[in-house]
Amino acid sequence: MTDPTRNINPGRLAILLKVGVRLTAERDLERLLRMIIEETTAVMDADRSSLFLIDGEKGEMWAKIAQGVEVVEIRFPLGKGIAGTVGKTGEVINIPDAYADSRFNPEFDKKTGFRTRSILCVPMKNMSGGTIGAIQVLNKKDGLFGADDEALLTALASQATVAIENADLTTRLRELNLSLEQKVRERTAQLTDANEQLKDLNRELETIAITDGLTRAYNRRYFMERLKQEVKRLSRYGGTPMSLFMIDIDHFKKVNDTYGHQAGDAVLAGLSELVRSKLRDTDIFARYGGEEFALIAPETDHAGALVLADRLRSMIGQTAFDHSSRSLKVTVSMGLATWTTELKDDFEKLIGLADAALYKAKESGRNRVCW
């Protein structure tokens, strides 16, 4: 899966990163939704933005906030209109002339006096690939929305999705805390049990925050934090170097195209479980993006890393992953880089070395380890 931020120029990317920090810091859902819309309008240089979430039980999309108009709550069927179509298909829609597109509903313009010219609408997808809503921007101020705008809004939608899911978890935890407090007042004899439940939920929340939902590997954000820490520790105190592995499933698109995305998900989850079962507690195995994984192996020099990498590569290639009475086999390519004192605390350069090695493995025929 391609990282959408790769297509964003550095200036806009810097703005995006700052927006992401602000969004993830807000845990009140309604304030967060308004913040997302305001930030989106500013970042995209648009006249107006809207955010719609999917109500799966009712098969509808809804919004409590639509910038520029007073809205209590609006609902419409999933699949209707531009946002409804994006919510249903999970595909980006970029319309240069709204009134020339049959999916556009002009009633909103008629009621408000607003004139919609161009529309860009992207899906909001969670870490499991499911669509939870859509973000829509109207009327770019200096022309039409282009491919760079699509990449920027897609990346912003990803950040918004993480922030919304975190805020939703926080809201649910807060509601549970209130409920537990009432129960404690009513039945103090159950205090111990209630506290244990709260601890379990906190542990679950902490786990969810750092874990990829599909593969149960660590998520990319946690991986980056740990890599920074490990490189900084080595730069300051030295010791046995650590090694970084970038792991990519070969021809993974063929698995999805031939057997379907559920089969692809089964391969991702199975591969992750297999690798994690063979690693040390100190190793950090993460889903880096799409079919790409990353592994931090502390206290592992280059020679030891080569042995581990080839053992994992061979083991994966020999394992059949079961899905719907089928046994699917895949191979992986690996790029390996080991920290040296010359790198100091430059973790990004270490990633670059591992990425370059992975590219070399792919270009050399796949199903191999390069460094």
Explain this structure.
The protein is of the alpha+beta class. The chain is 50% helix and 19% strand. The protein has eleven helices and 13 strands. The protein has a six-stranded antiparallel sheet with strand order 3-2-1-6-5-4, with helices on both faces. Strand 5 and strand 6 form a beta hairpin. Helix 5 runs antiparallel to helix 6 and helix 8 packs across helix 9. The model has no long low-confidence stretch (mean pLDDT 89).
Largest sheet: 6 strands, antiparallel
Q: Could you tell me the CATH topology label of the largest domain.
A: Beta-Lactamase
CATH architecture of the largest domain: 2-Layer Sandwich
* H/I helix tally: 11
Calculate the mean pLDDT score and round it. Answer: 89
Low-confidence stretches: none
Task: Count the domains.
Answer: 3
- Overall geometric form: globular
> Strand tally, please?
13
Beta strand %: 15-25%
Task: Give me a quick take on this structure.
The chain is an alpha+beta fold.
Secondary-structure topology with pairs:
Layout (H helix, E strand, L loop, with lengths): L9 H16 L3 H16 L1 E10 L4 E4 L10 E4 L3 H9 L3 E3 L11 H6 L6 E7 L5 E10 L6 H40 L4 H20 L9 H18 L5 E7 L2 H8 L1 H17 L6 E6 L2 E6 L4 H17 L2 E3 L2 E3 L3 E7 L8 H17 L5 E2 L1
Parallel strand pairs: 12-13
Antiparallel strand pairs: 1-2, 1-6, 2-3, 4-5, 5-6, 7-9, 7-12, 8-9, 10-11
